[in-house]
Each structure stands twice: as C-alpha cells, then as structure tokens.
C-alpha cells in the first residue's frame, strides 16, 4: 500500500523536481518567481509583460503576431514606470481595450433579437435591433453560466483567427457566497453556512481553467459588484458583518487566480451616491488598496469599476436634486475624488464606468433607488475616448433589458425597492428579460439611437 503510493508519487515528481511548469500553467511575467521552463510538448510563450504561459506545441504559436504588438505597447509602459510608496517602480498595464475588438455576447444578441420581434412600431424595432451590436458584459452569476464562457472563448478565438482582429471578452465575476448581503434581489446560489467559500473557489477554478485554454483572447472582468462597497458602509447589516471575512478571502482568491490567467480586472466600487460621499472616500480607498495589496499588487488589477448596473451620469449637467449636496454628484467627480486618495496609498488605479442605462437623469425619487427606474434610457456608447486619464473606458456592464429585480412581493428574492413608485412594474425576476423596460431604454436613449 505504502510502496504503491510512493511509486505513484515518483511518477508524478519528475516534472516538479525539474522545476517545469505544466501545460497551460504560468511560466513567466513581471514578479513571477515560479518555474520558467515548460514540460515537453509545450513552449513558454510571452502573452503580455505580466504573463507567460506553457502552450501546446514546440513551434512558435500563431498568436505570436499579437504578442509582438503587445510587447511594443509594453515598451512605452516600461519607459515610464510609476513609483509606488516604497520607491520601487510599480509597472502599470496599459489600457486593455487598446488594439482589441470587443466580442459581442451571442446571448445578449439573441435576447435583443427576440425583443425586436415583439415590437410592432417599425422605427422603434429598427432602433432596438442596433443594440445587439453594442458590447455588454457577460454576467457569470452562477456556475451554470460557466459553460457559456467556454463557448464564447472558443467563438472569440475562432473569430480572432479568421478576421485577424484580436478579440476581447468582457465578463462579470458575481457569485460570492451570501451575495448581495444588504439587499435581497440578487442573492446567489452559495451560502457561507453551506460550504460557500469552497464552492466559490471551485467556481473561480473552472473559469480560470477555461480562460487559460484561450490565451489569444483577452479577458476583462468586473469583480463582484456591490461586495466591497457593502463592507465599507453596510457592516451594520448583520449579514454583511458575518460575510466580511469570507468576502475578502473569496475576492482575494478571484483576483490572484484570475491574474494568474492573464485577466485584466476592475474591482467594483459602487457609485458616486454610495462611496462618493466625502466621509466614505477614505475608508473606501483604504479597503480597495488593502485588497489590491493582499492580491500581490498585480498590474492586471487595473483599478475600479463604478456605476455598475446603476443610473448615474458620468458628467451631469447640474446636480440631480436627489444628490442632496454631495459635491461628488456624478461619476466623474467621484472618480476625480477617489483616484488621488488611492494614489496617496500607492495605487495608480484606473477606472471603467457603466453608462448602459444612464442616458436620462433626474428620474429617481432617492439616490439609493436602483431597481428598474422608470424613464431610463440607454446612455453613452462604450468608448475608450473618455475625457479622463483616470478612465480606461466607458462600458455597458449591465445588459439593458435584463431586469434588476422582481416586484412580486411573494417571491423569495423580492426587495421592496423594486416596488417603489419610481420602479417600473410589474417586473420579473432579476436577470430575466423585461420587455417593457427594454423598449423605454431604446426610445429614451441619450444620445438617441439612429436606425
Ligand atoms: C461557438 O463555439 C461553439 C462551441 O465550441 C460551437 O459549437 C459554435 O459553432 C461556435 N459558433 C460560432 C459562431 O463560432
Ligand atoms: C447600505 O449603505 C448605504 C449607504 O450608506 C445605505 O444607503 C443603505 O441604506 C444601506 N443598506 C442597508 C440595508 O442598511
Ligand atoms: C409571485 O411569486 C410567487 C412565489 O414565487 C408565485 O407563485 C407567483 O406566481 C408569482 N406571481 C406572478 C404574478 O408572477
């Protein structure tokens, strides 16, 4: 028994004894201290300055053309390193969207297509159809969605090879145990009491394994909407206080393992009306910097995502009355206030801002209202032309038309926010299609949609 075990161990050992990385494992990159040679049949390939990977084959892989453009990009990066608090240069990864085309979610396109077929007004239908071509994020909000990621990675890889245009896939990591601890509408599949942390790690492991199979596809991820913001302001909610340690451990697991797969990441940072209050800025910056530090300060942890699935303007023409004197009454002001505090703490973070449903302002009764706001319109289209060096891209994280939460008070996930007078009703369960809502997003879009 014992010798059989030892014999089995010996057959496993040589690769590790020789310090060789396995197929699809990391074999180099800034700060990498592990093995730099690969097992036979695979070649250590530079994917970006922070990540090299053992890829199948001994010849130069076809993705090498993308590698050369990435390294020319990185040379400008390394010529101007920023300096961390200790005086050691901290490399920054460039804007992840530069040089890439965003892969369109086939699922969202099919939702939009089905919605268009239900619209009788031909002008509105033609406008609605254009939404399928605007990139959104794919929310991996349960393990059942992970196979879709595999399909999209395969499709994006194939598309990149056939068109010669490198593809970038946008995802949201959103499956913490005891998720949405201060509300109910988006509670998830895992609970801390029932093995939640291990289940979450398994969820991340599955995602990482898929992403490592498609090194030619760049992946950008928003990390866990609302989770850390809840730890800044909502620890008086018992479920948030009880979730604190597990949230931090799980977010750290996600950041370190996704960085190991070359994923560019933005940690969710709530929005101007949440962490943008002057009293919240410094505690928020401290928590975010701590989380980034604990995750090894990977340059792939680019910074923070704001306004995810919310309705705030990037640049409000004037303060909405609901902002009640907060000097940071829009996302630009919030970011301009938060970024320097992060810098003081050593993190040159950059931002992305969700503007999917921010086209119309001054439509809410209170700033805290977040559910299916009546009168909302699609907002500024995704662009890296952001008007701010702090902001890498304006994005559409929320797939417009997917519901924020049900107004059915008998549903286990009912949150009373979804039956406030500024919420469109009746509303189906969170994440499911809300046709009436989609149609008003289209008709109220600002800038308007030309068809
Ligand atoms: C997408 O990938 C799946 C799984 O590999 C494949 O079955 C499907 O044909 C692909 N579709 C396109 C449009 O490439
Ligand atoms: C969570 O914090 C926000 C911001 O301080 C506050 O408006 C909200 O009421 C809190 N949620 C709960 C359930 O206490
Ligand atoms: C509301 O939710 C309850 C419980 O899930 C369900 O039985 C009922 O059919 C729902 N009502 C509507 C109108 O969807």
Automatic annotation (TrEMBL):
InterPro entries from the UniProt entry: Beta_cellobiohydrolase (IPR016288), Beta_cellobiohydrolase_sf (IPR036434), CBD (IPR000254), CBD_sf (IPR035971), Glyco_hydro_6_CS (IPR001524)
EC number(s) recorded for this UniProt protein: 3.2.1.-
Protein's recorded name: Glucanase
Positions with a binding annotation for substrate: 139, 141, 271, 274, 310, 370, 398, 402
SUPFAM superfamilies noted in UniProt: Cellulose-binding domain, Glycosyl hydrolases family 6, cellulases
Active-site annotation: 180, 226, 404
Signal peptide range: 1-19
Keywords attached to this entry: Carbohydrate metabolism, Cellulose degradation, Disulfide bond, Glycosidase, Hydrolase, Polysaccharide degradation, Signal
Keyword Membrane attached: no
Superkingdom assignment: Eukaryota
GO cellular component annotations of the record: extracellular region
Recorded family membership: Belongs to the glycosyl hydrolase family 6.
A GO MF term: cellulose binding
Main enzyme class: hydrolase
One Pfam assignment: Glyco_hydro_6
Region called Disordered, residue ranges: 75-94
Residue ranges occupied by any CBM1 domain in the UniProt entry: 19-55
GO biological process: cellulose catabolic process
